[in-house]
Amino acid sequence: MICDNRIMIFGDSILKGVVLDREQKYRVGSGLELEQLGAEHGLRIENHSRFGCTCGKGVAMLERLLAQFTALYQQAIARLRALDIRPVLITLPPVCAGRYFRWITRSGLNAGAILRWLGDVEAIYRYQERYSRTLETLARDSGCLCVDLRGALLQNRQLEPYYCDDGIHPNEAGQQVLHRAVEGLLDSLPARPAMGQAAG
After folding, report:
1. Whole-angstrom Cα distance, residue 91 to residue 132?
2. Residue ranges in the chain whose pLDDT is less than 70
3. pTM for this structure?
4. Which of the residues 26, 72, 128, 185 has an alpha carbon 20 to 30 A from that of 106?
5. HEC-encoded secondary structure of the chain
6. Please, are residues 55 and 131 in contact by the beta-carbon 8 Å criterion?
7. Phi and psi of 51, rounded to 5°?
8. Which residues pair with 89 in a beta bridge?
C-alpha cells in the first residue's frame, strides 16, 4: 500500500525474499532488494512481510473460504482508503505443483493418500490460482493498482529454474523477475527524486 512517499508491504515469505539454500535451510536472499528499488524512485519501502503470513493474519495480522478471502480484502481496501492510503494488490506467484508435492511428502507423508484426496497434483496449482484470479478481479473492480507477479513469472516457458526446491518460494533468479515487476509499477507512478536527492 502507498501512503505519501512511503510504501508498506505486507506479505508472506515470498515478498520477504526467503529462499531455500543448498543446505535446505530458509534464509533471506538478495534478489528482491525492494528497499533499494524504492530509494531509486524517491520512495521509502517498508517490508513488513513475515514467514507464514497469510491474508487472514495480515488483516487481523487466509486460509479460509474464498468468499471470506474476498471479504477480508474488501474490508482492508476500504479501511486503507478511509485513511487516505492507496492500496496496491499483488497477484500470487504460481506454485510449481510437482516440486511442491515432492517437497511436502519427502519425509514420509503418504503421497498416495494425499494424491487420492487431491485428485491430481496440478489441483494444488489450480486451487491457488483461484485466489490469485480473485485478487486480479478485486483490483480491477476496486480500481486498485496491481502488481502481476504471477504473470511476470509465467512469461517464462519453465518455472522450475526460478524456484527453490520446495516449489513455492522463488529463488534469487525468481526474485529478480519479481523485482522487475515491482519496478514496472514504480516506473508508472509520478516521478520523484531519488532518496537523498533534493527535489528540483
Report:
1. 5
2. 1-12, 30-32, 38, 41-43, 47-65, 191-200
3. 0.63
4. 128
5. CEECCEEEECCCHHHHCEEECCCCCEEECCCCCHHHHHHHCCCEEEECCCCCCCHHHHHCCCCCCHHHHHHHHHHHHHHHHHCCCECEEECCCCCCHHHHHHHHCCCCCCHHHHHHHHCCCCHHHHHHHHHHHHHHHHHHHHCCEEECHHHHHHCCCCCHHHECCCCCCECHHHHHHHHHHHHHHHHHCCCCCCCCCCCC
6. no
7. -60, 125
8. 146
| Dihedral of alpha carbons 30, 173, 53, 23, sign | negative
Which grid cell sits at 72? 477480508
Full set of structural domains in the chain with CATH: 2-188 (3.40.50.1110)
pLDDT for position 95: 93
pLDDT of residue 133: 93
